[in-house]
Amino acid sequence: MRLHDQGDTVLKVVALAGGVGGAKLVDGLAAVVPAENLTVVVNTGDDFEHLGLSISPDLDTVMYTLAGVANPETGWGRADETWAFIETLETLGGPTWFRLGDRDLALHMERTRRLRQGETLSEVTADLCVALDIHVRLLPMSDDPIRTIVDTNEGKLAFQEYFVARACEPVVRSFEFHGAESAAPAPEVIEAMEEADLVIYCPSNPWVSLDPILAVPGMRKAVQARPTIGVSPIIGGKAIKGPAAKMYAELGVEPSALAVAQHYPELDAFVIDAADAVWMESIRALGLQPFVTNTVMDSDAARKRLAQEVLEFVGELELAL
Ligand code: GDP
């Protein structure tokens, strides 16, 4: 049956997301799906400990975006930020390669304080969402530490060392998600997947944002049991931001929307940009239903429109429900 044959029933949606690209589509979804029907499972493979603080970059990007306080220029941190802390740290000879704004710092300190008291990342995240007036359910993929390691021509690098300290310069060979095999999905993640009418892969980096989520035990099975649609993070062979296209090229794969579709054979449908319409038949041949639209989310209206269209595309799918 078709999803829209369910009449006025509102779909229950689970979105899988990394940072910037993921956060933008999640923001659009939050504008068109009632908050109680939207769960976002966020990558924590980029998380790390720095200056004694527990930092969760993707959770923070999604939270700041949904709260309307994200810095649109950097893609990380908060708007209206001040830098007294990091500037003072510099005068003291401390490490400044990972920039932490004063307002941003407060969130890391509060998260760290509560984790040290024995609370879980899910519990802390849920309360931070309340404090930031976020109504959709935001779940870390796991409460257990999972750390993305990038194997490069210069050896194995912790993710932030590769991404920030080395500005993605080393040539990647492969990725490891340390701790994934023995990790458990965070509470409510699998239940949300089981209850979902639809799972959406946001346009996030396949290698280091969505693969870590899918590496959490039980996630692939849960995904395969549900109707799924993805949105390509590669447009016209390029990433809008970040190293996704560079990673494909270094791994010997021509970066394209087709390469991303090949990355996710479990998807039922895949949304590509109008610039990539040439790949439609190749994507269909992979067994994924292709949909074409403008996928650049360069305004709030564009985020909302793309989210709405993704839901409409799903309505056109013949899926066994
Ligand atoms: P990160 O963890 O901050 O790198 O964020 P993500 O993994 O969520 O996002 C990186 C990917 O998002 C890149 O491949 C970008 O091309 C993609 N992206 C960013 N903005 C957009 C957009 O407006 N539309 C689409 N389709 N992809 C986007």
Fold and architecture overview:
The structure is a single chain. The protein is an alpha/beta fold and about 325 residues long. It has a domain at about 15-45 and about 135-315: Rossmann fold (3-Layer(aba) Sandwich), CATH 3.40.50.10680. The chain has 13 helices and 14 strands. Guanosine-5'-diphosphate (GDP) binds next to α1 and α2.
What's the topology here?
Elements: E1 13-17, H1 20-32, E2 38-42, E3 48-50, E4 53-55, H2 57-67, H3 84-91, H4 102-116, H5 121-131, E5 137-140, E6 147-152, E7 155-158, H6 159-165, E8 172-178, H7 189-195, E9 198-201, H8 206-214, H9 219-224, E10 228-231, E11 234-235, E12 238-239, H10 244-250, H11 257-263, E13 269-273, H12 280-285, E14 289-293, H13 300-316
Parallel strand pairs: 1-2, 1-9, 2-5, 9-10, 10-13, 13-14
Antiparallel strand pairs: 3-4, 6-7, 6-8, 11-12
Bound molecules: guanosine-5'-diphosphate.
The site of guanosine-5'-diphosphate (GDP) has 25 residues, from helix 1 and helix 2.
Q: Key terms for this structure?
A:
binds guanosine-5'-diphosphate, globular, 321 residues, alpha/beta, 3-stranded antiparallel beta sheet, 7-stranded parallel beta sheet, Rossmann fold
Whole-number mean pLDDT: 95
CATH class of the domain at 13-47 and 135-315: Alpha Beta
Question: In DSSP terms, counting alpha (H) and pi (I) runs of 4 or more, how many helices?
Answer: 13
CATH structural architecture of the domain at 13-47 and 135-315: 3-Layer(aba) Sandwich
- Looking at the structure, what is the overall shape? globular
Backbone structural class: alpha/beta
How much strand content do the residues show?
15-25%
Rg calc: 19 Å
The CATH H-level superfamily of the domain at 13-47 and 135-315 is CofD-like domains
Bound ligands, named by name, code or SMILES: guanosine-5'-diphosphate
- Helical content stands at 25-40%
CATH topology of the domain at 13-47 and 135-315: Rossmann fold
Low-confidence parts: none
* Beta strand count: 14
Order of helices and strands: EHEEEHHHHEEEHEHEHHEEEHHEHEH
Q: State the oligomer.
A: single chain
Largest sheet: 7 strands, parallel
Report how far the terminal alpha carbons are from each other.
7 Å
